[in-house]
Amino acid sequence: MARHHISVMPFGEVCGRVTGVSGLAVAVEGLGGHVAIGDRLDLRSRGGEGIAAEVVGFTLQEADAPPVAQAMVFGSLDGIGPGTQARLDLWLEPGSPDACFRDRRPGLAVHESWLGRVIDPLGRPVDGKGSLVSGDVVRPARAAPPQATDRARLGPRIDLGVRALDLFTTCRAGQRLGLFAGSGVGKSTLLSMLARHADCDVAVIALVGERGREVREFLEDDLGPDGVARSVTVIATSDSPPLMRREAAYAAMTVAEHFRDQGLSVLLLMDSVTRFCLALREIALSAGEMPATRGYPPSVFAELPRLLERAGPGPVTPAGAAGQITALFTVLVEGDDHNEPVADAVRGILDGHVVMDRRLGEAGRYPAIDVLRSLSRSVPRCNDADENALTSRARRVMSTHAEMSDMIRLGAYKAGSDPDVDEAIVLMPRLEKVLRQGRDEHMSRLDAFAQLRLALDPASAAPGGNS
């Protein structure tokens, strides 16, 4: 016990001083060769308060002079000025025969009792329910994905509880889907439906850069008591510093990995990857990196797969079992441009994409999922032949109706000219009913396929058939 307490106590410290502040970056001198990218510093403001900071880069000076560390803070820069003390705690390397110092980067000591709690990206409670119980192991927030050859394969298909998704973008345990939508199209409502209805053991929700006004509404109205009870929610609102917004994504992934390593099926919902990338862009530009694609520095697109690849099937245990992180990452497409850089990069990494269309929402169909533009790469192997034939036929009907919608709306199409169009005109209203779903409505995947089969049944669709 004493050895454990000693191992988690700082053995020494190195102190430097702030020599300049430019934008969001703080220049720190005097830390010598002890500091590295990602190290946490403690800055002492003019009022004596401690402000956590992270080293994000270095600036070279003269040939003989040590580089100046570039740091960014997790809070406000108020009170930081020239001469402000910057402290780096050091720990003794366990098991080292020499007095070898190392830095100890903070992580998250996740515990099962975190279910039902709301935390900030640094693992501090923000729900007013008291302190959190710490687990025995501190997991680093920034970790490497499991080795590709050691990972389990995708698990069986799971019920997401949303008909449009279960039917046309069927998901397997451990699969990663992107949810692409503009602002105000209903992403948050769809995420709340998934958190409440999806077939999983634990849900982890990351609200990255979310509007502060909407947080309580999401927790109390959209998620509800049942959804909150089986979830861990990590929040960094839009007014948070970029480091906090970035860290929210890492923290949520770390919590999900903790429950995955216990062999559980975890549903990870992250809203949104775009705001995570915007935070990365602010950090990189402040550190002096040059912008490239639409103002995004190259490091953003290098960091993105490191985060997304952490989701998915976990490593196979000696017993042959493995936990799964089934993840849905929302992408806030700028100006409804689905080919903008972040959307294009995310689509190439994930195992499928779900597109939400503003026009469908304006027409009153919620969730506003554009089935024809959505795709799950696991569908051919996880659905049986009858189900694949059923969804393929439904897609053909919807595609035919979409191609002829203008002529039908204007009355330019003459009934009997094309049997496929005639069928689409009859069946499309029935398919619309299948795709519409209330926020509190829940239906299993098998019942959803039964409803789709009934909607496409010519006998029930004919005049006088059952509606």
Automatic annotation (TrEMBL):
Leader sequence segment: none
Pfam families per UniProt: ATP-synt_ab, T3SS_ATPase_C
Sequence intervals crossing the membrane: none
Organism: Endobacter medicaginis
Protein name listed in UniProt: Flagellum-specific ATP synthase
Annotated compartments: Cytoplasm
Molecular function in Gene Ontology: ATP binding; ATP hydrolysis activity; protein-exporting ATPase activity; proton-transporting ATP synthase activity, rotational mechanism
The keyword Nucleotide-binding is assigned to this record: yes
Keyword set includes Cell membrane: no
